[in-house]
Structure of Calreticulin:
Amino acid sequence: MKLNLLSIASLGAALVASEVYFEETFSAPESIKAWKKSETKDNIGSIKLSPGEWFSDEKNSIGLQISEDARFYNYAAELTKPFDSKNKDIVVQFSVKYEQQIDCGGAYLKLLPVGADLKKFDGDSPYTIMFGPDFCGSDSKIHAILNYNKENVQIKKTPTPVKDELTHLYTFWIKADKTFEIRLDNKTIKNGTIEDEWPVFPPKEIPDEDDKKPEDWEDSPTIDDPEDKKPEGYDDITEEIADPKAEKPSDWDDEMDGDWEAPMIPNPEYKGKWAAKKIPNPKYKGKWSPKNIPNPKYKSDDNLAIYNIGAIGIDVWTVKSGTIFDNILITDDIKYAESFAKKTFTEFVQKEIDAQKLLIEKEKKDEKEKEKLDQDKEALEQELDFDLDNDSKDTKESKDTKESKDTKDTKESKDTKESKDTKDTKESKDTKDTKESKDTKDTKESKDTKESKDTKDTEESNDEDDSKDEL
Ligand SMILES: *[C@@H]1O[C@H](CO)[C@@H](O)[C@H](O)[C@H]1NC(C)=O
Ligand SMILES: *[C@@H]1O[C@H](CO)[C@@H](O)[C@H](O)[C@H]1NC(C)=O
Ligand SMILES: *[C@@H]1O[C@H](CO)[C@@H](O)[C@H](O)[C@H]1NC(C)=O
């Protein structure tokens, strides 16, 4: 039995010893060995000890990390000693860091009954309590499932976890008086009685079927205003009238076509069916519903949420790996859990926020540096290109790809003119020059395709496109 002197001291006169059934901070390298891999599948993802890629404090932040993408994880560890929760509180507490920006993956724990075969632990294995966060797309919840009469019963309204890359602390406190609290980062986010929040028993009360709505029950919130009277002659205004503008066609033959009648058109005077103005009903009593009576089928059960717990299991699926479980605690004393949380979690909250801020700033800085490097590289390439052009006498005027074509044209026409006026020896030299310059151009052109685009962008001074190109 592990006595917690701190809680004994703090409780003073009422000497109550807290018991710890499982406590794991993963600070010892061999701690991971306690977690046995299930033999039910071949491809269960691997686990390791890691503080993650970033952390507040390397030693404290080391936890159990699930380290392969798109895998099932089935691992379980025995409690230090079995936990019979009769007349005791149960406190399950642990932290989770989803540093990988979770898209879909759970990070909940299952408490397994005494005698559970850990080698066969998988999603179908019976458990007593399942607790912890689960994210999938827009669906975020903290599971709080209690086994009752061999059924796994989820809390009626699951609390919502925080979706970020920071470590969060989850505490489920099931009290001996059958009330409970769920805490997130040491703040109570849900409390009440177990039987109110979990649909484990038939309802305590049901509507009385013999209760009937009284004849004189006024359930209409408004009535017709008795003062409002229909105006004289209102009903004489018809919905349609004969079109006064219509004229009998000149070729109308009364004998052949019958009596001519003007076509009907909507009456502009018509105001619809008359209805009295509505006023609030002074006798309104609200919506009627039958009164509740005790449910004869209701039956509570002292064994609700009393468990004999022997082990703790991880049975999750994840798309992206990286989730870190840490500071797992099973105890019967919330005070002990609070002091444990203070040592292992609260003291590191701000440090972790700072570490994350630093990381984000570093990433931003690295990105900026990379951007600058790319820009410098490009500038250098352009300069180099420019020098090359300057060195080559034949393309002396060429400043960029766009101009190189013109240069070549100019040179060619010059060469042509020259070749006409010169001897054979010079002609052969010029032919060689022309070929050379063409080769240079071909090589340069393929290399410069990107550059010429960049040059164009620069000319248009379109900075946005530039940075897009670099990306
Ligand atoms: C839940 O918390 C509220 C506010 O702290 C408290 O008034 C209430 O008694 C609690 N309910 C139970 C069942 O513990
Ligand atoms: C955690 O919450 C409890 C109860 O709300 C409080 O007494 C305790 O001081 C808190 N601990 C820390 C470290 O914030
Ligand atoms: C071309 O190179 C020469 C000699 O290296 C240099 O003096 C000249 O300034 C350069 N021309 C241009 C336009 O940079």
Helices lie at 5-11, 58-61, 194-197, 254-257, 334-391, 401-421, 424-459, 463-470.
